[in-house]
Amino acid sequence: MAVGERSLLPRTLSRSAVSDPSDRGPGGERDRVLDRLRILEAFEQLDRKLEQLSLQATVHLAGSAALLLDGSRSNLTRDVDALRIEYAGRRHEFESAVRQTAKDLGITPHWLNRDVSLIPGMPPRTDADERTAYQGKCLTVIAPSDRQLLAMKFRAHRQQDWGDMQILARKLGATTFEQVRDIHDRFFPHSPYSEFPDVAKEYLGREIRWLLAERGQQRSGRNLASLARKAKEPEGNGERPRSL
User: Fold this and answer.
1) Do 175 and 204 have their domain in common?
2) For the chain, which end, N or C, has fewer CB atoms within 10 Å of the first or last residue's CB respectively?
3) Could you tell me what percent of the chain has a pLDDT over 90?
4) Collapsing DSSP states into helix, strand and coil, what is residue 132?
5) What was the pLDDT predicted at 215?
6) Residue 172: inside a domain, yes or no?
7) Domain check: are 131 and 167 in the same one?
8) Where are the extended beta strands (E) located within the chain?
9) Do the domain assignments include residue 12?
């Protein structure tokens, strides 16, 4: 979830992270901010702690942190979304190491977030293009393929993910709503787009068509920030349709 982004989805569609009282107050918001170097520092610190415990663990990423780590985006993120974590049955030791890492680095204790696993239909089907984002002595971090990540963000249908979806669509050469929908259905064959509620299908159909149209019209030197500003302009002749 990128810092400074606000969901415009109705309550029935929005999936906001649950805030923790410990993150409020002076410094709380600042401590939640993570960039690429901060994420790698957290992985390295966690790896050292796991080595002390002789504990091998694998974290499978799901969210925007994967794009930060491969350099596809520069926005900051509030947390590192983990689709699933393998820790050889030693959950309490692993979670203790995560909390201690947060304490050592002065970041939120919930920097490794597992809420994404609550999205219906997760996890997506596996893909041969999954890649290693970090490899330590005891910690391995696996990033999803661009196709998997686009499918997951489509499934979450959050306004705050449109920027990432635009990046992923560009990388994959997806230029139509139907192509994005088909990528989703490939990775979620047991809960395809056809099973979305009508209100969600209407929202996704309108918003993603607009998003991809903007991508096709993007000129050299015109970045995502300018597109975001354009999206907030008042409704009018040819303006972006409002959220449901």
Assistant:
1) yes
2) C
3) 57
4) strand
5) 64
6) yes
7) no
8) 57-61, 80-86, 112-113, 131-135, 139-143
9) no
Q: What is the rounded end-to-end Cα distance, in angstroms, of the chain?
A: 21
The predicted structure's pLDDT at residue 2: 40
State how beta strands 131-135 and 112-113 pair: unpaired
Residues 153 and 212 in one domain: yes
Global confidence as pTM: 0.74
Q: How far apart are CA 15 and CA 4, in angstroms?
A: 16
The parent domain of residue 182 ranges over 148-231
Instruction: Report the 10 Å Cβ neighbour count for 7.
Output: 16
Q: CA-to-CA distance for 185 and 195, rounded, in angstroms?
A: 10
Closest alpha carbon to 49 in 94, 89, 112, 106: 94
Residues 120 and 185 in one domain: no
Q: Provide the angle, in degrees to the nearest 10, between the axes of the packed helices 177-187 and 198-217.
A: 120
Q: What is the pLDDT of residue 66?
A: 93
> Identity (one letter) of the amino acid at 108?
T
Does one domain contain both 214 and 121? no
The total number of structural domains in the chain stands at 2
Q: What is the SS3 assignment for 140?
A: strand
Burial class (CB in 10 A: 0-12, 13-18, 19+), 209: middle
The answer to whether the beta carbons of residues 158 and 14 sit under 8 Å apart is: yes
HEC letters along 106-128: CCCCCCEECHHHHCCCCCCCCCC
Residue 85 buriedness (CB in 10 A; 0-12 / 13-18 / 19+): middle
CB 183 within 8 A of CB 147: yes
Low-confidence ranges of the chain (pLDDT < 70): 1-32, 215-244
Which of 145, 171, 198 is at the close of a domain? 145
**Backbone φ/ψ region at 4: left (φ over 0), alpha (ψ -120 to 50), beta:** left
